[in-house]
Design brief:
Distance between the termini: 45 Å
Order of helices and strands: HEEEEEEEEEHH
Helix content: 10-25%
Strand content: 25-35%
Strand order of the largest sheet: 1-9-3
Shape: elongated
Amino acid sequence: VFGILAIQVYSGYSWCINAGGVGEYSKECPSSADFEACFARCQCYDANDNPTFERDAMCILDTCYCAYDSCPYGRLITSPLCCTHGHGGAEITCDNYCENYPSDCKKINTGYP
């Protein structure tokens, strides 16, 4: 009975976690659920390892990347936020996370006011 209840709760609600990985060039969301990588922040460095500027990570599917384009030596300065895929309603997903937790999004600078 508990197993059926756990599966029902797990499949019925979406949720978000931090993936860790600060200081790494990229970080994949945990494989324990069907997570989508939402956002993270990167510190870019020059070839001599001097910090130059910050930018949003490029998050594709279940991974956030910092080393790309004009930031070839970028590293994560925030832990990527990973959310399970929701199916509408009042569920928290990558698409509506900032509406529900605006103070988190201001810290990460995802373009949310």
